[in-house]
Amino acid sequence: MDHLNQAVTSITEEVINLRREFHAYPELGFEEYRTAEKIESYLQELGIEPNRIAKTGVVGLIEGKKRHPVLMLRADMDALPVDEANSDLPYCSEKPGVMHACGHDAHMAMLLGAAKLLNNMRDDLEGSIKLVFQPNEEVAGALAMIEEGVLDDPPVDAAMGLHVWTPLKIGKLGVSPGAIMGGLEIFTITVQGQGGHTGYPEMAVDPMIAAADIIQSAQRIQTREISLLKPTAIMFGRINGGTKANIIPDTVTLEGSVRTLYPDYEQENPMERLKQLAEKLCAVHGCSCTVEWYRENIPLVNDPDLARLASACACEIAGSEALVSDLACMPSEDFSEFSVRVPGVFVFLGAGNKEKSCDYPHHNPRFNIDEDTLPLGVEMLVRFALKFFQDKEVSNQ
Fold first, then answer.
1. Total domains present in the chain
2. What is the pTM for the complete model shown?
3. What is the mean pLDDT of residues 37-50?
4. Which of 239, 266, 297 represents a domain boundary (last residue)?
5. Which domain holds residue 263?
6. What distance in Å separates the CA atoms of residue 326 and residue 36, rounded to the nearest whole number?
């Protein structure tokens, strides 16, 4: 057991308690007031002056013996509008209808633990650490922080984030170069027909048929128009139309998402393809439509050099057998907004353990993590920071 591992072990119980407190008092995006106050208080006790940004975000700076380079370490803060079903847990959510069902409670606790250890090493750091606690990750809160200057003063040279991941077994660490999490666009298609009586369908223009055709035909975009080597998922999550069984409605609304897992998604432009398809199909059925959409997240792409450093850290922490180097998935993450502006790397921490009932998927009301992953996350953050500065020193010589 090396010195860093011993230091992590000495604060593990503290990190677990932090995570459980965050879990018991979850808050939705841009409402993380209690959470922000807890983070600010903790940083102040360490002698790190916190700054509030983007309403409920918190930023702290650990200045080493050299001011530059600057490495940003980021944790997300927000919970989800989910009613927790883990009533047997002593730290179950105290707020009905709100739950940390994605592990952000763990991310904050691990970053605070890492801050404590890195702050103790500040006189030996070959650069500075910018600690970023980001609100509203579930709805693209990173942009609000960027617009308020989180990457400036001092300017950030690189960024790292991590995510506990129950699909990955406890003890495993996932680090892959390139695209690792999907871009996300949300769309609404409103099909306009002409309502009427179901007993006289020939006197109406049925938007239901057009809507059904859109849902079925949209699948050809991702399997026939875009290369299979460029993963694209067009999913419909909501259909709304009609008021009674014997009434053909005037309109039907379809809502869904498009996810892409490749950097040049704009070149393929699946949303524009979907719009054109919907318009043409509606015309065939004698209907019209409007298609509206917005981009919530861009694909998250890991910088290859930083991924190499993170992989080396993972092997030092848990051995080469623990490294998963081909992990990529379609859920989106707005850490991508940071990593498209500065070199970034995002690491998955295995937190799944069926024996502890920690194998439920993210966003599930029974979601929970194996807390044995917390010290691994703390060590990953600290070890990566040290290796990043060391690598910068070597490259500058």
1. 2
2. 0.94
3. 98
4. 297
5. 183-297
6. 35
